[in-house]
Amino acid sequence: MSDRVPVLKIGRVLLVSIQQDLEDQMVMDLQDDLSRRIVDTGAKGVVIDISALEIVDSFVGRMLADNASVSRLLGAETIVVGMRPAVAMTLVELGLSLKGVRTALNLERGLKLLRRLGTDPA
Amino acid sequence: MKDYGASATPAETVQVATSGDVVTARQMVRTLAQRGGLGLVHQTKLVTAASELGRNMLVYGGGGVVRAAALSDAGRSGIYVEFRDEGPGIPDVELALTDGWTSGNGMGLGLSGARRLVDEFDIASGPEGTTVRIVKWAR
Ligand SMILES: Nc1ncnc2c1ncn2[C@@H]1O[C@H](COP(=O)(O)OP(=O)(O)OP(=O)(O)O)[C@@H](O)[C@H]1O
Ligand SMILES: [Mg+2]
Questions:
Q1: Residue A23 belongs to domain spanning
Q2: C or N terminus of chain B, fewer CB within 10 Å?
């Protein structure tokens, strides 16, 4: 029953594109998979594309925040890209500021940001 | 809060026993909100609140029933959602509604955040279970 969100390796970056409404178990699996893949691949950057997500609640929000901290400890920067404006407004009202999570408007800008942070995605 | 539950018909229900059911419940709420003419931001806030309350019901209440319906009252239209479980209840509701208070290892934002995201919020909790009722009006 529990599908997994694919984690793709593109150059030195891990790319996660969340394409469906996530069950809590999938959220937890993704967190595990990501840290394992960072270690296995030595990736220096992670991009999580949430443009397809219609909502981000406290559970997914916490995964995004925890993942940013864990990745950083493992030597990788995480950029969350594509957050919808309605989702951003809702998160703020929910009380989740996602401090410590780097964001960019879209995938292209996310990759640019990684480059600027010294992680050449190529 | 008014007893919207009685007038809100026909209601749709989802039984929540797994985290997959929480996904089903929030999708039901989204569909109703779309049909009910709520704007995108309102829909997003309502569905996010439903996700928090649905998860609480599963994690702390051992599951339960989510019931939702379109509503119209005094010329306004909106969506009513009710979360009913037969779990142990919340000993101190005021405390549970405090930002950051959790009895487990959550962030303690679900209940307080959900209350902020909707227009009307009512909670009744005792040893026989917890019922949370919310309304989001279309503007
Ligand atoms: N349906 C319920 N039945 C029993 N206790 C509940 C119920 N809903 C909430 N609670 C209690 O209220 C507390 C606060 O809930 P809230 O959703 O705000 O935070 P959380 O679930 O602990 O963390 P978060 O939702 O931020 O991940 C919970 O820790 C739990 O003790
Ligand atoms: Mg909660």
A1: 7-116
A2: C
ipTM score of the complex? 0.92
Sole residue written with tokens 């008014």: B2
Q: The sheet that has B120-126: what strands, in order across it?
A: B12-16, B64-73, B76-85, B129-137, B120-126
Q: Residue B110: CB within 6 Å of ligand 1?
A: yes
Q: Locate tokens 């809100």: which residue?
A: B8
Residue A2 in any domain: the answer is: no
The residues near B44 (Cβ < 8 Å, ≥ 6 apart) are A54, A55, A84, A86, A87, A89, A90
The verdict on the CB of residue B64 being under 6 Å from ligand 1 is no
Residue A121 lies in a domain: no
List, for residues A83-120, the tens digit of each pLDDT value. 999 999 999 999 998 988 999 999 999 999 999 988 77
Share of chain B above pLDDT 70, in %: 99
